[in-house]
Write a structure and sequence with these properties.
about 375 residues; alpha+beta; four-stranded antiparallel beta sheet; 10 helices; 19 strands; binds zinc ion
């Protein structure tokens, strides 16, 4: 158990974090978080713009008119708390116990947002005439469909030729200790929605029916046997997971007419989605099976190459923790998939992710202060050199 000093409790990022956590911003409701952030940014000379798309609220704020543009990005929305009675304290009334701050969104990712704002405030106070521009891109739809959020903001910026050179995403990237992992890319995510067609029949007369479960079983085994790739220098191996199978009409003496299944690939740059789809169809077509397969691509893989942003992020983490971060492309998708294709270098650095989306989500209050210092150092290294 770590002792919490009063100095940490009085950290301005903790105060701001409290305010953000008290707002019930369950996807896609921003619940006023962005207004709060925009007000503070405007006081520092940022020009802020609310971009509303459908029921999603997005904030684009910028200080400076010239390039290069260093942008911090993130989301104000949180996943629902689940059964509130299962929480040790109210998920929307932050509480500190043993140096940890408990609330929904504490780690994913309102602590990242609070740290960004305070880091920027401190940097601007020290260097009001900095070179280039500082920007913030915040959405309220990262945990949901993610169609009217970061993707649309990037489209709007591209349409008016506004370019982000570097982006620091405040998603909870750390695993065991703050800054142990910095994400520099992500695998792609490709989902398949499968329907296997059969002929319903009496369970005692299988010769007059065609059981889709029986048809699918060997194919399912085959899909799990395949080693899709072994990854590469930058990416972990491609993974294949079945997430849902439905069949049966609810009677013990009837074989079902059809089966549906959903599966997902998290794929490395050894594949592109078209090639991966073709390979899957080849495997299917080698089996005697009548099927329909629909695809949904939710993100192509992306990778930030070594350069100034990765160097600055590594240096900031190393200076403040004594250890160089591991540069990783593991984990799920993030809004980095929408930011990177416009030619932007993207890194993700945020708090420990062990409790995200869980009951009793929490963040170390000491880490919130240290994350603020890391962000401030990154800004200095990017804009003062
Ligand atoms: Zn998140």
């Amino acid at each position: 158990m770590t002792k919490t000093s009063t100095a940490q409790l009085e950290h301005p990022a903790i105060d701001l974090l409290y305010e953000l956590l008290r707002k019930r911003s369950v996807t896609p409701d921003d619940a006023g978080c962005q207004d709060l952030m925009a007000a503070r940014l405007e006081r520092m000379g940022f020009v802020s713009e609310t971009m509303q798309f459908g029921d999603v609220t997005n904030l684009w704020a910028r200080r400076g008119e010239t390039g290069p543009v260093l942008c911090f990005a993130g989301h104000t929305d949180v996943v629902p708390p689940g059964d509130v009675n299962e929480w040790s304290s109210d998920p929307f009334e932050p509480e500190i116990r043993a140096g940890q701050l408990y609330a929904r969104g504490a780690a994913d990712m309102k602590s990242g947002l609070a740290a960004m704002i305070i880091a920027i405030e401190r940097f601007v106070a020290d260097h009001p005439d900095h070179a280039g521009s500082l920007a913030l891109l915040i959405t309220s739809d990262e945990e949901g469909r993610a169609r009217d959020g970061t993707l649309k903001v990037i489209e709007a910026l591209s349409a008016r030729n506004e370019k982000i050179d570097w982006c620091v995403l405040g998603e909870p990237s750390s695993q065991e200790s703050l800054g142990d992992i910095v994400r520099i890319g992500r695998r792609g995510s490709l989902s398949g929605m499968l329907t296997v067609k059969g002929v319903q029949g009496h369970v005692a007369f299988p010769q007059f029916a065609d059981n889709p479960i029986r048809r699918f079983a060997p194919l399912l085994a085959k899909l799990h046997e395949i080693v899709w790739d072994n990854g590469n220098d930058s990416f972990p191996p491609t993974s294949f997971q079945v997430v849902d199978i439905q069949s049966g009409i609810g009677a013990p003496n009837v074989t079902p007419p059809s089966l549906t299944a959903r599966f997902n690939f998290r794929y490395s740059t050894e594949w592109d989605h078209e090639r991966l789809q073709r390979k899957v169809h080849e495997v299917f077509d080698a089996h005697e099976i009548d099927y329909e397969l629909k695809w949904h691509l939710s993100g192509k893989p992306f990778l930030t190459l070594p350069g100034k942003l990765i160097n600055a992020t590594s240096q900031a983490v190393t200076e403040l923790t004594g250890n160089a971060p591991e540069l990783s492309t593991g984990g799920g998708t993030s809004d980095g998939r929408f930011i990177s294709p416009a030619g932007t270098d993207v890194v993700e650095l945020g708090p420990i992710n062990a409790s995200i989306h869980k009951l009793d989500e929490h963040v170390s209050i000491e880490d919130v202060g240290r994350l603020t210092d890391m962000y401030q150092r990154i800004i200095e290294l990017m804009l003062l050199d």
